[in-house]
Specification:
Mean pLDDT: 96
CATH topology of the largest domain: QueA-like
Helix content: 10-25%
CATH class of the largest domain: Alpha Beta
Number of domains: 2
Distance between the termini: 25 Å
CATH architecture of the largest domain: 3-Layer(aba) Sandwich
Shape: globular
Largest sheet: 9 strands, mixed
Number of helices: 7
Low-confidence stretches: none
Number of strands: 17
Length: 343
């Protein structure tokens, strides 16, 4: 398969530049993966589409204010740092731009609050740096000086940081939001529970590798970056119980999907178990889903690994036809855009 097999034409004006208010007022495309049929509603309709005995799997990661700006201590020139993965303690893997400023041994100051030293330059150009925080804890200082790492296609300033967090975010560590979850409100979640739908949580810290463009023409040559995940024992048991009773496992977002499918791939039996580790799973057409039965997701970039995942679940032709309909109906696309429920 070629990456061009997953291209669709998207007018730039359909790329959502700001979150809609309230969260649950976004549009919702209802997409039958077996027939390819689509219908249209609003996100609050999702309550009616879930059944007692289903379980909803949410990714409770929390986004770091991961973009910080430092000045070289020897020249005073500025560089942008984007935090990717915590290696250990205050040692992090980062992207630095421009990279030529961040050679091994160079030091940078951040607003007089903390500093860092470049320890290693990796083969892919990312840096390993060690932060020094004499004035307080690293995460408290980061919260003070950091900016939300909004995707490159969002050009408007985000006035409220919490609008790039889900209402159930808990474990800090992501470089990007699990955006399918941005539509949920506490009220929607309570209505879902009241209907007899169980809710389980996983954690996958979203890395920017998820959104890295596919550069290779042949998609199987693309290498995914690893992301850390945790499948709690109670969520694993909830999924197993749901499967045994004939309910559906409904993932909110591609990150929840990749977590449950990664864990299912580790297990010898049909039942899954608690797990903690790193995944670089790449899901594209031909993949056999082991756990997920339905998916709530946003609309993804052309030729991205995420539209490939959706195509694996719903079929490439059905998916591209649904996207063409979304363009024609002027849905809002990408991180702050509308949602689809694929069932």
């Amino acid at each position: 398969m070629k990456k061009s097999d997953f291209y669709y034409n998207l007018p730039e004006e359909l790329i959502a530049q700001h979150p809609i208010e309230p969260r649950d007022s976004s549009r919702l495309m209802l997409f039958n993966k077996e027939t390819g049929d689509v219908s249209h509603g609003v996100f609050t309709d999702i309550v009616d589409k879930l059944n007692a005995g289903d379980c909803l799997i949410l990714n409770d990661t929390r986004v770091l204010p991961a973009r910080i700006y430092g000045t070289r201590t020897d020249t005073g020139s500025t560089a942008e740092f984007l935090l990717l993965n915590q290696i250990e303690g205050t040692t992090w893997e980062v992207i630095v731009g421009p990279g030529k400023k961040a050679k091994v041994g160079r030091t940078f100051d951040f607003n007089g609050k903390m500093s860092c030293t470049v320890k290693e330059v990796k083969d892919d150009g990312n840096r390993i740096v060690e932060f020094n925080c004499p004035q307080g804890s690293f995460f408290a200082l980061l919260d003070e000086i950091g900016q939300m790492p909004l995707p490159h296609y969002i050009h408007e300033e985000l006035k409220d940081r919490e609008r790039y967090q889900t209402v159930y975010s808990k474990h800090i560590g992501s470089a990007a939001a699990p955006t399918a979850g941005l539509h949920f409100t506490p009220e929607i979640l309570e209505k879902i529970r009241s209907k007899g739908v169980n809710i389980g949580y996983v954690t996958l810290h979203v890395g920017l590798g998820t959104f890295r463009p596919v550069k290779e023409d042949e998609i199987t040559a693309h290498k995914m970056h690893s992301e850390h995940y945790h499948m709690p024992a109670e969520t694993a048991e909830l999924i197993n119980r749901t499967k045994r009773s004939g309910g559906r496992v409904i993932c909110v977002g591609t990150t929840s999907c990749r977590t449950v499918e990664s864990v299912a791939g580790l297990c010898d039996s049909e039942e899954i178990r608690e797990a903690d580790g790193w995944t670089s799973i790449f899901i594209y057409p031909g993949y056999k889903f082991r756990c997920m039965d339905a998916l709530i997701t946003n609309f993804h970039l052309p030729e991205s690994t995420l539209i490939m995942l959706v195509s694996a679940f719903a079929g490439r032709n059905n998916t591209l036809a649904a996207y063409d309909t979304a363009v024609r109906e002027k849905y809002r696309f990408f991180s702050f855009g509308d949602a689809m429920f694929i069932y």
